[in-house]
């Protein structure tokens, strides 16, 4: 009987500690680290790639490659060409042939 009470008490204390840890981490996300939380939000790849590929000679191929890169990197460089230094991940993806994958 005493061992059951002890086990219940230990589990209760562990649950309280766990709940407190969740609250602390929740406050960090909603408080000081809002920039990090915003960085983890997914962007509108269709809209960003639509603009990026708007002047491409083959827009369907451009869109397919851009959306793949966007989904992997969660970033699309500004403008219709260039500016790849704005998204290092986007600029580093290559095809099996070693060519740059992202438009």
From TrEMBL:
It comes from the Eukaryota. InterPro entries: GASA. Keywords: Signal. The keyword Endoplasmic reticulum does not apply. Residues 1-26 form the signal peptide. Belongs to the GASA family. This is Gibberellin-regulated protein.
């Amino acid at each position: 009987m005493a061992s059951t009470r002890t086990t219940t008490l230990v589990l209760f204390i562990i649950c309280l500690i766990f709940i407190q840890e969740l609250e602390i981490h929740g406050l960090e996300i909603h408080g000081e680290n809002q920039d990090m939380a915003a960085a983890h939000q997914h962007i509108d790849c269709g809209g960003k790639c639509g603009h990026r590929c708007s002047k491409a000679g083959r827009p369907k191929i451009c869109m397919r490659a851009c959306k793949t890169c966007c989904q992997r990197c969660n970033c699309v460089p500004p403008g219709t060409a260039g500016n790849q230094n704005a998204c290092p991940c986007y600029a580093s993806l290559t095809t099996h042939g070693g060519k740059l994958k992202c438009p």
